[in-house]
Each structure stands twice: as C-alpha cells, then as structure tokens.
Amino acid sequence: MISLKGRSFLTLRDFSSEEIVYLIDLAAYFKKLKKEHVLHDRLKGGNVALIFEKTSTRTRSSFEVAAHDLGMGTTYLDPKSSQIGKKESIEDTARVLGRMFDGIEYRGFGQEIVEKLAKYSGVPVWNGLTNEYHPTQILADMLTIREHFGDLKGRTLAYMGDARYNMGNSLMIGCSKLGLNFHAVAPKKYFPDKDLVDICKKWAEESGCEIVLTEDVKDGTKDVDAVYTDVWVSMGEPDEIWEERIEDLTPYRVTMDVMKNAQPKAIFMHCLPAFHDLDTEIGRQINEKFGLTCMEVTDEVFEAYQQPVFDEAENRMHTIKAVMAATLADDWKI
Ligand code: CP
Ligand code: NVA
Questions:
Q1: Residue ranges per domain, the chain?
Q2: Which ligand is the nearest neighbour of the Cα of 316?
Q3: In CATH terms, are 12-133+316-328 and 137-313 the same topology?
Q4: Which of 106, 131, 231, 312 has most ligand 2 atoms within 8 Å of its beta carbon, as the pocket-test mutant?
Q5: How far is CA 132 from CA 2, 181, 190, 219, 288, in A?
Q6: What are the pLDDT tens digits along the chain (334 aa)?
Q7: Residue 326's CB: how many other CB atoms inside 10 A?
Q8: 12-133+316-328 has which CATH code?
C-alpha cells in the first residue's frame, strides 16, 4: 500500500512513478466524487495556510476549493499583508505556521524557500510553483493526457519555449518518471540544465522513454501526441527581457503548422495563463511595443484546441486535492 502521509510535495524528483500514479488515481477518484456530488470532507477540522508571493488564479482557487471539499479551512497570506521575508525569516514563519496549520502551500521564488518551510514547519508543505518547479501542475497535465488518450506510457510530449524554467523542468521530470517521451523544442540556451537532463535520462531509461533536446521545430514536434507551451516570460522575471525572448522564441510559437506536424489526434496543452490574443493588459502592451498579436500560441490554435487546456485547468483542483488528502491522511478508498 502506498502511504504519503506526513510527506511534503516539493518536487516530483522526490516521488517514485508508483507514488505519482497513486496521486493521479486519487485525483480521478475525487473528480468522480465531485461530479456525483458525493461529499468527501473527511479532513473536517483541519486548516491549511496558503502563501502566495506571486499571483495566481488556478492554483489559489484549486487549493481553496479542494481544502473546503475535504472539510478544511484556509488562510490566504500574501507578501503585502504578512511579515514573511521582510520582518520575519522563513524559518520563524515556518515554525509559527506549523503550530497552527495542518499543511502549508507556498508559491514564490527559489526552491530553497519551500524546502526551508518544509524543514522547519513540521507539517506537509506543498509547492504551488517556484522558479524551478511546478509539480502540482504536472499531476493535472498527466491526468488530462490520461483522460484524453487512456494511457500515459509511450506517449510523446513536445514542450516548446523556455524549457529550462519551472514548467520545462517539471514536465521533463514527470514524463521521464511516467514513461512519456519528452522533447524540449527550443533554442539551445533555453534547454534544461544538463544535470537535471542527466538525472531524467536515467529515469527515462528505467521507464522506457526518451528525452530529446532539439532546436528543430519540425523534428521535435513530428507525430507527437501533445504540444505544450507556456508564457515566454515567467512571473518574477524583469520586463526588459521581453525583447530578447520575443526574438528567441517567436520561431517556437505553437501555430497550426506545428499542430499539423503532430499526430492527427494530438492535443495542445498550456498551464495558463496564455497570451493568445490582445484581451490582456500585457498582451496589449507587447502589441504596442513589438507589434505582436499573440505570443507563445496563435489564437487560432488556442481556440481550436481549447478543450484539453481547460480540462487541465479543472484538473488542477482534483490533483491538488489528491496531494493534500494523501499527505494528510491514509486509507483513501479509491
Ligand atoms: N497554471 C497556474 O499555475 O495558474 P495560476 O498562475 O493562475 O495559478
Ligand atoms: N512559467 C510560468 C508558469 C505559470 C503557471 C511562470 O512561472 O510564470
């Protein structure tokens, strides 16, 4: 029997393929209960802290709804209305929150912060996104791929764009552990860190898949099952970087030609938020400055392939629920 009780969820590096599949199965179980309106508030009386040093729509909503569904209360802490970092160290914050809460979610900057929270709080800590990793997103992505194709092993996912940041890193880890071929399709300087690639290649060998890093869009996306992209400039990166990113990554935009090069039933995936039109403030600013009407994905692709993208968004909630449930209690009857 798999037990994750008491564990933190900081990066998928720490979890075996069996444990990751267990979390995906548990999420599918919770999704079914939710659709059938079956209450599953077994963690009644519990409380979780949600620390967000960066903005969020999906992750915050997912933690709040999931905690509520499980019977727990939530406290939201943002950097402006808490002492975190400025007046109080992470260690002290962790020791305080650990006395009051059953679990702590953290979204913010360096991975070392979430690691420190876990070390000093004494309760499970969940990574809601750091610069390096976004592990809860990968669980939602894998559940979505499995729902769509019925399986995971042997599928191929091509990630286009900045493959050395949280999404590229975490997708490469998730794919290599679960047996999906992972293609990073990007200019060389955006390839994931060599040490991480080497570790993932070992996991890929064990699970029977391949890690491919390529600058060639045609080769990298040929017959793949899923084409994945993310914003070109991530939260916390400086505005000055836009110009360079646009120049470097425009050839790696997901267009209809890219989708046609993938297998006929391929899906388009995006963790969201996405810049596919001019209906955002940043989208309009970039349009005024650089003349672009979309960035990492064309509006045509986004609208034509939107269903799995919003399945991914919904699945954030079910998978985050699974992470909290599994790390706070045992014996979920799947
Ligand atoms: N995908 C994701 O993490 O979305 P939010 O930034 O809205 O939480
Ligand atoms: N790479 C993006 C992911 C957003 C979910 C960021 O860090 O902003």
A1: 12-133+316-328, 137-313
A2: 1
A3: yes
A4: 231
A5: 27, 21, 13, 27, 31
A6: 899 999 999 999 999 999 999 999 999 999 999 999 999 999 999 999 999 999 999 999 999 999 999 999 999 999 788 888 888 999 999 999 999 999 999 999 999 999 999 999 999 999 999 999 999 999 999 999 999 999 999 999 999 999 999 999 999 999 999 999 999 999 999 999 999 999 999 999 999 999 999 999 999 999 999 999 999 999 999 999 999 999 999 999 999 999 999 999 999 999 999 999 999 999 999 999 999 999 999 999 999 999 999 999 999 999 999 999 999 999 898 7
A7: 22
A8: 3.40.50.1370
* 299 contacts 277 by C-beta, under 8 angstroms: yes
Cα of 53 vs centre of ligand 2, distance in Å, is 13
Q: Which atom of ligand 2 is nearest to the CA of 137?
A: 5
Place of tokens 């349009």: 287
Greatest Cα pair distance in the chain: 56
Alpha carbon 110 to its chain centroid, in Å, reads 15
Q: Which atom of ligand 1 is nearest to the CA of 128?
A: 3
Sheet holding 103-107, edge to edge: 73-77, 47-52, 103-107, 125-127
For this structure, is 230 an active site residue? yes
Nearest residue to 122 via CA among 141, 142, 103: 103
The CATH class that applies to domain 137-313 reads alpha beta
